[in-house]
Design goal:
Shape: elongated
CATH superfamily: Tetratricopeptide repeat domain
CATH architecture: Alpha Horseshoe
Largest sheet: 2 strands, antiparallel
Number of helices: 8
Helix content: 55-70%
Strand order of the largest sheet: 1-2
CATH class: Mainly Alpha
Number of strands: 2
Distance between the termini: 82 Å
Radius of gyration: 26 Å
Number of domains: 1
Length: 186
């Protein structure tokens, strides 16, 4: 009997050595890979913008938050965090972050545009119009989305019969890396 047990044990040990098991994952594993030690991480801003393009706003917000650890609270990270919050519909948080971003001289027109979209969504049409005019001027009228948002704001503010209680048929559409446009649903 001990001979059978020893031979079975030897056979199982020999067969175990032939498998790809062990502590490492095989290349055809369905699970996500672990950390790539020794390799530089991809910039959180790049990852966040890719996630924004895929409309994964919560994951983008996390990536942008990680990017602040590397870059600090720069105009780029503030604008990115504000854009992600806008995508999530968190207008109050988006407004605070975008206002901090435009206080610098480095704010790009898309940041001003996104702040204008937030203000328009909140119903603050007069300020939204001024912010979108500034975005349009900084962009030299090159962006169709900024122009369309400005037109929509002007149309809303000129329409004195506009009822706040009416159902609003608008959709927030993302264009580019951090540029938003409000479209009417027909």
């Amino acid at each position: 009997m001990p001979l059978k047990i020893l031979s079975a044990l030897a056979l199982s040990t020999a067969l175990a050595a032939c498998t790809a098991g062990g502590l490492g994952a095989s290349r055809d594993s369905p699970y996500a890979p672990g950390l790539a030690r020794g390799k530089p991480a991809v910039d959180g801003l790049i990852v966040g913008h890719r996630l924004m393009a895929a409309q994964q706003y919560e994951l983008a917000l996390q990536a942008f938050t990680r990017a602040t650890a590397e870059h600090g609270m720069t105009v780029d990270t503030l604008s990115a965090l504000g854009s992600a919050n806008l995508g999530l519909g968190r207008l109050g948080q988006a407004e605070k972050l975008l206002r901090r971003a435009i206080k610098t001289d480095e704010a790009i027109p898309e940041t001003w545009n996104n702040l204008g979209v937030v203000l328009m969504e909140k119903g603050e049409l007069a300020e939204a119009e001024q912010v979108l005019r500034r975005a349009y001027a900084l962009d030299n009228g090159q962006s169709d989305s900024i122009r369309d948002n400005l037109r929509l704001t002007l149309a809303k503010s000129e329409n004195s019969a506009y009822a706040v209680d009416e159902e609003q048929n608008y959709k927030l559409v993302r264009r580019g890396t951090s540029d938003y446009l409000i479209r009417t649903l027909n």
